[in-house]
Amino acid sequence: MRPRSRWVLWRGSARRRTATRRSRSGSSCRLPSRPRRAHGPGESGKRPAGPSGRRGVSMSSTGNRTMADHEAYDRAVRERLRRVRERIGAAAARSGRGPDAVRIVAVTKGHPHGVVEAALAAGLRDLGENRVEELARKSPRFEGRGIVWHMIGHVQSRKAGGAARLAALIHSVDSLRLAGKLSRRGEAEGRRIPVLVQVNASGEATKGGFPAADALDGIGTVAELPGLRVDGLMTMAPFTSSEPELRDTFRRTRLVLEKAAGIDGVEGRELSMGMSNDFEIAIEEGSTMVRLGTTLFGARPA
Questions:
Q1: Per-residue pLDDT at 131 exceeds 50
Q2: CATH superfamily of 67-297
Q3: Using CA atoms, how far apart are residues 44 and 255, in angstroms rounded to an integer?
């Protein structure tokens, strides 16, 4: 009689193995099972808790998710948003403003559609993406849901048309070349595309944008383009925990905007400054839009 068999996964491929084999004496013996991985100190072998405290409840994890998982994640996002709004209100008060003076741009870049659904369920409508390709994939799925899409990442000149078509506001106009491409697109469509001019106030070589020292010339040139509407400025702070450095970066950008207020064509006073690790400092220095991802949704998938 043939032995019973089963499918097992071995070295990345499914191979058929016999569950028993005959020994030379004719008796049968069980094949040894594959050893389980030993867990290191502090490891339980269970998946880490998600935002709600329940094991495995995370839209960034892989695997099947139940309705209960989605509901738990939605509750976690709402609670995080509540705490963030409290912090925004306190920071705005320290700068002599009300909480409504600061808009949250919820950054869904790199997250699956379930995170966008959670953002909508929490009442968020301003959503930010870093890449034109990802925005092109996500936006059709959520058409008609009232989302205001923001393009917050670097836009390659060859993708300017896609950014202009999909985003309600482009935060990252960091060169005259990109500005020219966007303006020509706006002229062809008979409209002025809303943009923010990116200022490199930290002076880091890894950051894009017009250097703060001569940003006014760049802003003036962008503001003259007929197909653009300059609504304000954006900056990215250095990756540091030094509050003086962060504060100096945000203050420099605010001062540039104050000087740019007299330039014809600069119609808005928006300051897109601050992310999950520094948004309170940014608000204290005048930010009107904060770009928040991790603090609302947790870590992105690896």
A1: yes
A2: Alanine racemase (3.20.20.10)
A3: 52
